[in-house]
Amino acid sequence: ETGVTQSPTHLIKTRGQQVTLRCSSQSGHNTVSWYQQALGQGPQFIFQYYREEENGRGNFPPRFSGLQFPNYSSELNVNALELDDSALYLCASSRSGLDGYTFGSGTRLTVV
Amino acid sequence: GQQLNQSPQSMFIQEGEDVSMNCTSSSIFNTWLWYKQDPGEGPVLLIALYKAGELTSNGRLTAQFGITRKDSFLNISASIPSDVGIYFCAGRTLYQGGSEKLVFGKGTKLTVNP
Hints:
Chain A is mostly beta strands. In chain A, 0% of the residues lie in helices and 55% in strands. The A-B interface holds A 4, 31, 33, 35, 40-45, 48, 50, 55-59, 90, 92, 96-97, 99-106, 108 and B 1, 4, 6, 31, 33, 35, 40-45, 48, 88, 90, 95-107.
């Protein structure tokens, strides 16, 4: 079975720009969550998608938004990028209510 | 908000030594998870704990879910160089709207000297 894949692996954006990050879930997983990991910190929950709807959000502003598609893949969109948005963005998939989460390798976003 | 206190922050050990790290929280979690993260990679699940008091092993790794559901520990026996990395504890909790989220500790950076 394939794991969680994320693209791109690295990205450099300018402050004020918009970015879209993509994630393909592990086969059989119907729930996708996104996490932001700043350097030297543990991942922080951004939001979770189940059945193509956001069903939980962490302490992140509305300029962080997402989508989940019928094949359970997902996108994270960030508008009006700020320097503090520089981080590793991790996508995690799971079978709702079961097992641990499987993480992708992440997208390293640098905002300059 | 919910926070996990993970300790120690870093460890420097000799190959062959045993390692112990732990997490505590002021909140109750219904699942505890332990992950390992290598540089440039996402966290990889090591052990999942689902019941208070549960003790689970995975090879040289042993983890326990505290009776109070507010703590967990991870032990690594007979460490080897490939154990190098950052270890994270995570508590899984029900969230608004019926979703779940993971709350992570800040990690324990393990260095193993050959």
